Amino acid sequence: MKQFVLNGYHIHDIPTFYEEVNRVFMQEADWKLGESLDAFNDLLYGGFGALAGNEPFQLIWRNFEQNKQDLGKALTQAYYQKKLEQPAVFNTPFFTKQLDDLNKGKGKTYFDIILEIISSHTHIELVAQ
Which intervals hold domain Barstar (barnase inhibitor) (predicted)? Predict the structure, then answer.
């Protein structure tokens, strides 16, 4: 089984998460994945970058617990707030609800959303280190 290693020691925020994803999965490509959860999800289906298809692979994520904090509540609040500052571009009611849920302790952090995306791909075995 193929293995890919996310070096979480390089991940501190959203931009560095995507830099690390690009380092791991897009080295041979002549383009890079943008800072988009949808794009990350699409990548995991395979067909470009280091993933030829939806072949099974192991994703080893180092510094997992620290990244859980780094991509946690405070970062997610700022992420949603930035979306709300651009109502012509983003779905304001959706992001308002996401932010309200997060502030009430029942919403998902950016990290939670990443894990949800990974777990939706049954060909991926996540190994947290």
Answer: 1-77
